[in-house]
């Protein structure tokens, strides 16, 4: 039941994202941002779903995309170099978020890359706000369990002797 409620909330988020992108005529940014929403829904505590990681990855890759579109345009070799640079940059600054790399290609084909970048940044901030709201709502509906937290089982004692039990007893 908890997973169904969480997925329903995030599917609503994808629909809101689609409507916002449709209103601004920026449908090209929907696939990477929808992939971000799926990562946020699948594992809210995961390494790819940290809000700081998501925001920083989109900002860094967006700046590289703007740099590429202003100076080199839609050159395939430059896109290849920028993709390598983006992956290296995201690995150096620990903020790896795979869907953010797609923004490089979206910005290189956009007629107005700066406007696309600003709309993408606003949509990412909206997605993260929706993520926090969905986490809050989920915690209010299911207060007994935090999402993504698994209680640790106590270790069972073994009947086989180990090195540590021999040291402790001997």
Folded structure, characterized:
The protein has one domain. 69% of the residues lie in helices and 0% in strands. The chain has seven helices and no strands. Helix 1 packs antiparallel against helix 2 and helix 2 runs parallel beside helix 6. The protein is globular.
Q: What is the domain tally? A: 1
Instruction: Specify the number of helices.
Output: 7
Q: Strand fraction band?
A: under 5%
Low-confidence stretches: none
What value does the average pLDDT take?
Answer: 79
Task: Work out the oligomeric state of the chains in this entry.
Answer: single chain
Largest sheet: none
Instruction: Specify the helix fraction band.
Output: 55-70%
What radius of gyration results from the CA coordinates?
22 Å
What is the element string, with H for helices and E for strands? HHHHHHH
How many angstroms separate the termini? 51 Å
Using DSSP, what is the number of strands?
Answer: 0
Query: What structural category do the secondary elements indicate?
Result: mainly alpha
Shape: globular
Pfam family, one: TM_HPP
Domain HPP transmembrane region: 5-129
Transmembrane segments: 7-23, 29-48, 55-73, 79-105, 117-137
Keywords: Membrane, Transmembrane, Transmembrane helix
């Amino acid at each position: 039941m908890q997973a169904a409620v969480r997925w329903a909330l995030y599917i609503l988020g994808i629909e809101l994202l689609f409507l916002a992108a449709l209103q601004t005529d920026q449908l090209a940014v929907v696939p990477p941002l929808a992939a971000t929403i799926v990562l946020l829904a699948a594992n809210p505590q995961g390494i790819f779903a940290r809000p700081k990681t998501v925001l920083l990855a989109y900002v860094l890759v967006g700046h590289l995309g703007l740099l590429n579109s202003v100076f080199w345009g839609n050159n395939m070799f430059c896109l290849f170099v920028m993709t390598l640079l983006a992956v290296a940059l995201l690995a150096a600054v620990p903020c790896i978020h795979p869907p953010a790399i797609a923004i490089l290609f979206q910005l290189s084909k956009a007629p107005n890359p700066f406007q696309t970048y600003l709309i993408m940044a606003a949509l990412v901030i909206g997605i993260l706000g929706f993520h926090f709201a969905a986490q809050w709502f989920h915690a209010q509906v299911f207060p007994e369990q935090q999402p993504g937290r698994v209680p640790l089982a106590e270790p069972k004692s073994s009947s086989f002797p180990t090195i540590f039990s021999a040291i402790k007893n001997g």
